Amino acid sequence: MTGRKSDPTIVHLVWDAIQSCMTQRQQPNFERVSKHIMRFNSISPDVIEDELSKVVDDGLVRFVQRLGAKGSKKGEEQELYKLPKGPPAPSEHDWYCASCHQPGELLACSGCPSARHSKCLTEAERQTPFTCPQCQMAAAEQCDIKKKTLNTLLGYTVLRLKARMLPLTAEDAGVLSPSSDPEQRFRTAYLLYRPLEIFDIEDKLDRQVYSKLSEFEGDVRLMVHNIIVMNGAESQAAAVAGQVLQDCLHDVQEIRICRDCYRMSNEKPGKNWFCRPCRPPHELVFAKQKGYPFWPAKVMKTENDMFDVRFFGEPHERAFVTRGQIRPITTSLQALQIKRSNPWTRAHDELKRHQAQLRRVEEQPSLLNSDSEPGLESEPESTDSPLREGAAPPPTKRRRRAFDPDEDGLVEVKDCSIVVQKVENDKQPACLPSPDDQVTSSCQEPQPRTVATQTPAKFLRTGATEQQHPSPAVSEERVRQLEKELERARQAHKQELASLDTQYRQQLSASKRKQWCFNCEQEAIYHCCWNTAYCSTECQQVHWHKEHKRVCRRKRTL
After folding, report:
1. Do 414 and 325 share a structural domain?
2. Is the peptide bond before 129 cis (omega within 30 degrees of 0)?
3. Where are the beta strands (DSSP E) in 425-508?
4. CB–CB of 218/138 below 8 Å?
5. Most buried of 1, 129, 251, 292 (most Cβ within 10 A)?
6. Which segments within 94-218 are labelled E, that is strand?
7. Tens-digit pLDDT profile for residues 402-421
8. What domain range includes position 336?
9. Domain boundary at 433, 453, 468, which?
């Protein structure tokens, strides 16, 4: 397949030069176009001539010949360069390589519109008929995640990508594409075979289009490809796009390793979210890093003799350790020679809580099925720490707190089946329970229970608020909608500023072409000398007798 010959960066320079000539009401011939390009870039005229011929051959610039109509060029034949008109020539595949984003001889994929250079592929990938690596990955992928769950997980990835792309919205930092400017939309049509931006990906997530991770990864790669084509490989936008692609590949790999860990690490449902079992549960080990004792951890994946582990205890860090730094979770603490510090004790408490929930799942497998969210949702998270080895069991409490504040200061309602009964004044108990025990909660089967105190109004308001927002997915959806509306408002504001700036420049240019009365600053019609003009004879007489007759430079005839 013969792709385009011209570099997109050179195409932008040529278009800018032609538009500059048209703004100055000059004919965009080779001399003026090359002078404009060399003013900002160190390119020789010979190279510019060669690149111009490539741009014309690709149909991105029209080459016309016409007779001059005025000035010294009147009647002479002129060779001019014009912007393209109408839609671009139809093509079945992309005009630029999806790997290096440059033109040249390309291999067209038989499964999608993308194309690649032969030099950008490995020997195994150069097959006949050619299928791009993205299509091969999509054909081999077996995704067992439900469509709704997959699009919810990818929504967290898109939020992270949007945060990474915030520098692109700063002034003079580069743009994804000039599609927001009506006068520049032809650039998008002629350079991007499949225009796609982050808002289009968000719209697909809202409509739950993605059924495989490879589909989402392919769209992000296409978005990055478009950014580099529109802004150049050396631009700041291209550097940000490269970081966006790295973040996307990392998050997609995390979802492939364990979708439950990825979801819980983003949602963090309660302070003990790390203790909830995954599907399937991870292997538990003691792992050691240099300078630290053996630490309880989950094995995320294993590659050869390297273990990717995630440690218990805040902030639940990740590390790659060798097989020699791994010990089974059944190893005694005396054999590991553990020196118990406060962080290690908290991590070990998390391990005990996780093991308790695993045992409960083994006894009741229905608590951990593929149709529900990970973990034990129906189990309230007690605020008590698990029993430590050798410690006496704490006294049993009659009631558990239904409002359990997590580490972020949020309050989670553990049970909504609360019955409040007022107590008569003559039956007031001698000792009122503490505020922590004023509301009760149930474990699995919600059962109405009577409390002999009146529930404070602030707890009832909190419970009502939580019932109105039963799941974080609703709030997350609202946040995405608000961010989308904010981005649209930002784009509209940017367009309005550009329009006002254009109007201001036009008015300023028109004002500079006029003469103004030196006396009253109205538009002048009578010229006196080199920098003096008047709007009427009255102003001329006033200014003449006031001061101008002493400095006037107009030649007088005797």
Report:
1. no
2. yes
3. 450-451
4. yes
5. 251
6. 107-108, 115-116
7. 434 444 443 343 343 333 33
8. 263-367
9. 468
Q: Are strands 419-420 and 450-451 parallel, antiparallel or unpaired?
A: parallel
Question: 275 with 342, same domain?
Answer: yes
Q: Which residue has the higher pLDDT, 433 or 319?
A: 319
Residue 397 lies inside a defined structural domain of this protein:
no
Local structure of 451: helix, strand or coil: strand
Domain for residue 196, yes or no?
no
Partnered with residue 286 across adjacent β-strands are 296, 327
Residues 6+ away with beta carbon under 8 Å from 511 = none
pLDDT tier, 279 (very low <50, low <70, confident <90, very high otherwise): confident
CATH number, position 67:
1.10.10
Beta strands in 93-209 (DSSP E): 107-108, 115-116
Count: domains in the chain: 4
**What is the identity of the amino acid at 211?**
S
How many secondary structure helices (H) and strands (E) does the chain include? 16, 15
At 303-332, the pLDDT tens digits run 888 888 989 988 888 888 888 888 888 888
Q: Where are the alpha helices (DSSP H) in 232-303?
A: 236-257, 259-267
Asked whether residue 163 is assigned to any structural domain, the reply reads no
Q: Has residue 297 been placed in a domain?
A: yes
Domain with residue 347: its CATH number is 2.30.30.140
pLDDT of 180: 52
Output the six-digit token pair for 531.
Answer: 């920098």
CB hemisphere CA count around 8 (13 angstroms) = 27
> Of 346, 367, 388, at which residue does a domain stop?
367
